[in-house]
Amino acid sequence: MPRDIAPMAMTLANEPFNHEDWLFEVKWDGYRAIAYCKGKTVDLKSRKSNTFNKRFSQIRNALQKLNLNAVIDGEVVCLNPDGKANFNELISGTQNGTMVFYAFDLLWFNGHNLQESPLIERRKILKSILPKSDIIRFSSP
Predict the structure, then answer these.
(1) Half-sphere exposure of residue 30: CA atoms within 13 angstroms, side-chain side
(2) What pLDDT digit, counting tens, does each position of 69-80 carry?
(3) Contact indicator for 7, 45 with CB cutoff of 8 Å
(4) Where are the alpha helices (DSSP H) in the chain?
(5) Residues with Cβ within 8 Å of residue 40, at least 6 apart in sequence
(6) How far apart are CA 67 and CA 61, in angstroms?
(7) How far apart are CA 86 and CA 91, in angstroms?
């Protein structure tokens, strides 16, 4: 299993665009996180490889229950009762809203490095392995 993956960063553009060869994601207002899942052992890391294990323990616990052998790229988000991201609540640590992990990319799965595979294929596999959950969610554009 690879370690310390630096996730792809967003790129600032001067204006919006659309192209049939591009996939677009929702910009969640949260913390980018990489989940290193080795069965019941899960290590949740920031994009700079700092641990999120204690800070987002409920996300980590939910990932442990999935019992996957995978590296998942996603974002930890705190949702208000209307289902909108509330970054202020996330950074304050009060976390009165619903904590979720929106998974949007599968980088490694069951011994196979998928980073060179097309994103559309990685997302198909990711969607197929994630069960319906209130905490771990597949991020749909």
Answers:
(1) 26
(2) 999 999 999 988
(3) no
(4) 57-66, 87-92, 119-129
(5) 64, 67
(6) 10
(7) 9
Report whether CATH 2.102.10.10 matches the domain 31-138. no
Altogether, the residues listed in the chain come to a count of 141
pLDDT by residue (tens digit) across 86-116? 888 888 766 677 899 999 999 999 999 999 9
Cα(138)–Cα(54) distance, rounded to whole angstroms?
23
The full set of domain ranges for the chain reads 31-138
From residue 97, give the alpha-carbon distance in Å to each of 66, 83, 93, 128: 23, 9, 11, 27
Instruction: Give the span between the Cα atoms of 137 and 118, in whole angstroms.
Output: 21
What is the pTM (predicted TM-score) of this model? 0.89
Alpha-carbon distance values, 71 to 32, 33, 57, 97, 116 (Å) = 13, 10, 17, 26, 14
Q: How far is residue 63's CA from residue 37's CA, in Å, rounded to a whole number?
A: 7
